[in-house]
Amino acid sequence: AQKITQTQPGMFVQEKEAVTLDCTYDTSDPSYGLFWYKQPSSGEMIFLIYQGSYDQQNATEGRYSLNFQKARKSANLVISASQLGDSAMYFCAMSLSGYSTLTFGKGTMLLVSP
Amino acid sequence: EAGVVQSPRYKIIEKKQPVAFWCNPISGHNTLYWYLQNLGQGPELLIRYENEEAVDDSQLPKDRFSAERLKGVDSTLKIQPAELGDSAVYLCASSSPTPTPNTGELFFGEGSRLTVL
Questions:
Q1: Which residues contact A57 (CB under 8 A, 6 or more apart)?
Q2: Closest listed residue to residue B41, CA positions, set B85, B98, B96, B5
Q3: What are the tens digits of pLDDT across the range A50-94?
């Protein structure tokens, strides 16, 4: 069975600074996908970024990048130039080859201060 | 393109009462999911449909929860009778057909927040 671990319950960052949100995963399946979602206080889950287990390069999407370290089984999210609107819960998730169901971590609350 | 639509957004009921949640996925998405999200936790899968077939309902408490997706489009999740511990957000999501997880992004609705008194 797969497992996602997010060890940071909360993180604080000042506006315009970069922040890293940690995620480690556990699976014996060689083919998997790693996702990050953002959940603002309004409740909807917003897809941010995806990394496939066979992807050679780290994924990037605008201010978001995924620091993928396969040997360490980590998939940390880096947000550059934080904005006030980045304040939200952030969830790391994983899916296995052939299955589209996502398994989520417990999340990290990010607060961006002016 | 319309997103995943859920209703109601909020529901308050007394324990032992029944409740139902409705979800309409994105057009063309044949996979539909119901997730449960407790306060301060990540979403947990309740049931996954491929078209009208429930392919993963191992986490659905079948003594009180039921779900259906009769025509392979919209879906209903029902709880009867509701218990205090069922207070949570019920999220519906859908995804497009894909043979691998490479593009297996899930699109979520805004959720239905249930409070059981």
A1: none
A2: B85
A3: 999 998 899 999 999 999 999 999 999 999 999 999 999 999 999
| Helix, strand, or coil (residue B102) | helix
- Tens of pLDDT, residues B61-113: 999 999 999 888 999 999 999 999 999 999 999 988 765 445 678 899 999 99
User: Tokens 């409070």 appear where?
Assistant: B115
Q: Does B106 sit within 8 Å of A44, measured CB to CB? A: no
Query: Which positions in chain B touch A43 (Cβ < 8 Å)?
Result: 89, 110-111, 113
The sign one gets for the Cα dihedral B57, B60, B61, B66 is: negative
Q: Which of B89, B103, B95, B79 is nearest to B35 (CA)?
A: B89
> How far apart, in Å, are the Cα atoms of B52 and each of A32, A69, B30, B75?
26, 38, 8, 9
Q: Which candidate, B61, B98, B92, places its Cα nearest to that of B74?
A: B92
Chain A nearest CA to B56, separation (Å): 9
For chain B, say whether A25 makes contact (Cβ under 8 Å): no
CB contact under 8 A, A95 and B93: no
Q: In chain B, which residues touch A (CB < 8 A)?
A: 31, 33, 40-45, 48, 56, 89, 91, 93, 95, 98-111, 113
Token pair in block for residue B36: 């449960």
Interface residue A47 vs chain B (CB under 8 A) = yes
Is some CB atom of chain B closer than 8 A to the CB atom of A93? Answer: yes
